[in-house]
TrEMBL record:
Chain residues that bind substrate: N102, S128, G129, G130, H185, N186, Y190, K260, R287, R444, H450
Protein name stated in the entry: 6-phosphogluconate dehydrogenase, decarboxylating
Residues where NADP(+) binds: G9, L10, A11, V12, M13, G14, N32, R33, S34, V74, K75, A76, N102
Function: Catalyzes the oxidative decarboxylation of 6-phosphogluconate to ribulose 5-phosphate and CO(2), with concomitant reduction of NADP to NADPH.
GO biological process, one term: pentose-phosphate shunt
Family: Belongs to the 6-phosphogluconate dehydrogenase family.
EC number from the UniProt entry: 1.1.1.44
């Protein structure tokens, strides 16, 4: 029996994707570096569909129909190169190598270019939804050539999550586009989680709501415009009581958040592309600060707070909800704007409506909001920034007074709200008629002759600061 697709790397993600494929009627050849994992999968789940057991990559390749589709799901980084290097000599022109792990998009671009020279397709696909999604329907972001998608799309679309009958999978763009979009998805996920954390802190330290009470608040919020997977599970985590101590679970967990790196990658790319992803950046830094355990202990001894002696009113909970919504919108706007920047840089024709649509199901940032975002980018008149879509301009205008009140109150109470406040600063920065960047340009010209442009005359200028302070036309040197 020829298999329609081969999967190599059968740890939790690979095994679940293989099972998902088999459950959807595809014959799946299985391979793992250590054969024990393959046998474990077959022993536990071998009856779920048609599997072909293989012990070597040669056997895996030989078991596949042509053009061959080999999906790699091994640890990201050097292991992917190692598996690709072993596979390439075994493959024929037109075969497709798929990397479904969390690879950096630059690695994917490099691998795609190298395999294209050998007549092979290399497809980097972003998969979101964790183990559960991989098994029952993830959100899938495939890159690579459009031609490879014709051979791969039907399988991927079948195993992906579906929302309103539509698969949460669509061809994203060439080479590393799929992994890039997955990276930005993760960046938005970081910001999404941080704004939820800030709301929790404000409700706890500002309004005095215990976790159990907050679980009810978040459940309620999950019925409205904030409805999303992350808000839903926030209610679950806040409502959870530690079985050992009987305390709220959040009170027994060490308050240092870990990270695997995709948020950091997003920020680094944002810096390189000149995309102001300040909400995502602050969420990555918030995790970094949380992990500075020793300094935090010292700071509690040494640094004064001098918080204002104010108490919050009855409307505070609703204010926080609105501030959370507005900040979340800004994070999405920043992430999507970064995609626009990357599309220009790398020559990708990214369709933001399709991307927002395939994030609606299966992935961690799935949210009601994405329906409206999809609509905004499907409109004939596409907004150049998500916040300019009429529905969101209006929504944020409504939330603005509450957003300002919450940030001001947080500052007075000494409650850190890095993403609430950075998002508000981004919003105000965007809409401000004159920014102090004019002064920055003046300073740059004075200390480094970096030149400037004038508001009233075309051209590039330099002031002779150390001489008679007259202005001369200059060659633009930035
Ligand atoms: P791991 O990242 O833990 O990787 C383990 C797998 O990689 C095993 O099959 C292992 O084989 C194989 N492997 C490691 N090194 C090599 C090598 N040099 N040569 C061949 N095989 C090797 O597995 P996960 O299932 O957790 O994740 C797989 C990928 O999916 C990663 O890129 C991860 O970032 C990504 N991902 C994970 C998610 C998750 O929730 N876990 C969610 C979304 C994406 P062996 O059994 O022989 O050791």
């Amino acid at each position: 029996m020829s298999a329609q697709i081969g999967v190599t790397g059968l740890a939790v993600m690979g095994a679940n994707l293989a099972r998902n494929l088999a459950r959807n009627g595809f014959t799946v050849a299985l391979h793992n570096r250590s054969v024990s994992r393959t046998d474990e999968l077959l022993a536990k789940h071998g009856t779920e569909g048609d599997f072909v057991r293989t012990e070597s990559l040669q056997e895996l390749v030989d078991s596949l129909e042509k053009p061959r589709r080999v999906l790699i799901m091994v640890k990201a980084g050097a292991p992917v190169d190692s598996v690709v290097d072993q596979l390439v000599p075994l493959l024929e022109e037109g075969d497709i190598v798929i990397d479904a792990g969390n690879s950096h998009y630059e690695d994917t671009r490099r691998r795609e270019a190298a395999l294209a020279q050998k007549g092979l397709h290399f497809v980097g696909i972003g998969v979101s939804g964790g183990e559960e999604g991989a098994l029952n329907g993830p959100s899938i972001m495939p890159g690579g050539s459009e031609e490879s998608y014709r051979a791969l799309g039907p399988l991927l679309e079948k195993i992906s999550a579906h929302v309103d009958g539509k698969p949460c999978c669509a061809w994203i763009g060439t080479d590393g586009a799929g992994h890039f979009v997955k990276m930005v998805h993760n960046g938005i996920e970081y910001a999404d989680m941080q704004v939820i954390g800030e709301a929790y802190d404000l409700l706890r330290s500002g309004a005095g709501l215990e976790p159990a009470e907050q679980a009810k608040v978040f459940s309620e919020w999950n019925k409205g415009e904030l409805a999303s997977f992350l808000i839903e599970i926030t209610a679950e985590v806040l409502g959870h009581v530690d079985e050992r101590t009987g305390k709220p679970f959040v009170d027994v967990v060490v308050d240092a958040a870990g990270q695997k790196g995709t948020g950091r990658w997003t920020v680094i790319s944002g810096l390189e592309l000149g995309s102001p992803v300040s909400g995502i950046a602050e969420s990555v830094f918030a995790r970094a600060l949380s992990s500075k355990a020793a300094q935090r202990v010292e700071a509690q001894e040494l640094l004064s707070g001098q918080e204002a002696d104010i108490s919050v009113g009855e409307d505070f909970v609703e204010d926080v909800r609105q501030a959370l919504y507005a900040s979340k919108l800004v994070s999405y706007a920043q992430g999507l704007d970064m995609l626009t920047g990357a599309a220009d840089e790398y020559g990708w024709d990214l369709k933001l409506d399709e991307i927002a649509s395939l994030w609606r199901g299966g992935c961690i940032i799935r949210a009601e909001l994405l329906k409206e975002i999809t609509k905004a980018y499907a409109a004939e008149q596409k907004p150049s920034n998500l916040l300019f879509a009429p529905a969101f301009t209006e929504a944020i205008a409504q939330a603005l007074p509450a957003w300002r009140r919450v940030v001001a109150t947080a500052v007075q109470l000494g409650i850190p709200v890095p993403v609430f406040s950075a998002s508000l600063a981004y919003y105000d920065g965007l809409r401000r008629k004159r920014l102090p960047a004019a002064l920055t340009q003046g300073l740059r010209d004075l200390f480094g002759a970096h030149t400037y442009q004038r508001v009233d005359t075309e051209g590039t200028f330099h002031t002779l600061w150390g001489e008679d302070q007259s202005e001369i036309a200059a060659v633009d040197s930035h």
